[in-house]
From TrEMBL:
CDD domains: HAMP (cd06225), HisKA (cd00082). GO terms for cellular component: plasma membrane. Keywords: Kinase, Membrane, Phosphoprotein, Transferase, Transmembrane, Transmembrane helix, Two-component regulatory system. Residues 154-207 form the HAMP domain. This is histidine kinase. PROSITE patterns: HAMP, HIS_KIN.
Amino acid sequence: MTILIVMLVSSLYRQLIIEQENQVDTHLHAEMQRYQQLALTVNRRSFAAQIKAADPKTALIAWKNSVDMVGALTFLPDDMPFLPETREFPIFTGGPDKLHILTGGLAMTNYGPVLIATRTDQLAILIDKFVNAAFWAVAFTLGLTLALGYIFSKAILRRLVQYNQLSEQIEAGHYNTRLPVTHQQDEFDMLAQQFNRVLDTLEQNLRAVRGVTDNIAHDLRTPLSHLRIGIEQLSQKPIEELADARAELLEELDDCLATFDAMLSLTRIEEGQQQLDVQPIHLTELCQDLYDMADVLAEAKEQKFVLHTPNDAVIQGDKYLLFQALFNLVDNAIKYSPEGSSIEITQDAKCITIADNGPGIDDEDKERVFERLVRLDPSRHFKGTGLGLSMVKAILSRHKATIELSDNHPGLVVKIHFK
């Protein structure tokens, strides 16, 4: 701000000086031409009379004839240059302003050199007033700028201190703390809104982690307790029962390991660590393979299993992972639907629909079922890890597909849309 103001004032000052010099040069040049032309048209006596009659307010004219000085001066200053070169020189008068500063030079005429000058001390006074006014204007502007900058910086610093204090509360574990957002909607408010969204996501993830931890503890405590009791009772069992007891313990242990393997596999898929074997996939063939594999399970529960494939479509994806995701959905439909119910798979272009007549899922749980280790109360008596639908969501997300749950009245409808 200081540099800009100084540059502006300097530019104005330079323009003022240049304009003053141009006006003086123009005026002196005009007077020089006038008296040169006058010397060509009148005699010496008339020329002297014209010089005596010159108005000193317009220009100061002095001419030395053969006898004495004619004009406003009693003598010619020394070392005066010929116009257009000029020089400043002082003169003393009898008025209130005794000292005047003039700028002028000599003009060569037919009657000899004539001194032509004009007063410039008033312009110097004007320049001094301009410099003084510019100084105080710059000082006032800088003072005002510094004052406003100080107030503005204090306001910014106050908000930064507030943000720092709230950040310390968040660091201390108060994750429900949020940064304030004012009605101004300035850059700080935009930053606070973005930071609050990050905190919302963080708090949601922390709740999810706590929920996963609780679910792991709930789902693994029972089999681990069975393992511990079974191991303690091995020494008390007769030899002929040891093989069966060992098989039961191994099965319990395999279930625990399967849970952890599923979680590791889910993490690799979600974070993109598992490479996809991308190839062209005909959805009709994929659904037919799915039907052939699951028809046996539905037949065991005396369920009606129907496949509709009116329009084929080809997508790019990992056939093994997509089959795993779709089979998981069909397996859930068979598992939770009662005997004698109907299960339908419909593949129409790039949309696959799986409908069953099971208990369905409440609206408030339709998003929660895709979280890790979430098992709704009706499914607790079925054996599983609670990671199936999480795996389905992760696989479909890697394939840029969406999944939607809706009611079948009764039952559940699962719609998968591929891009």
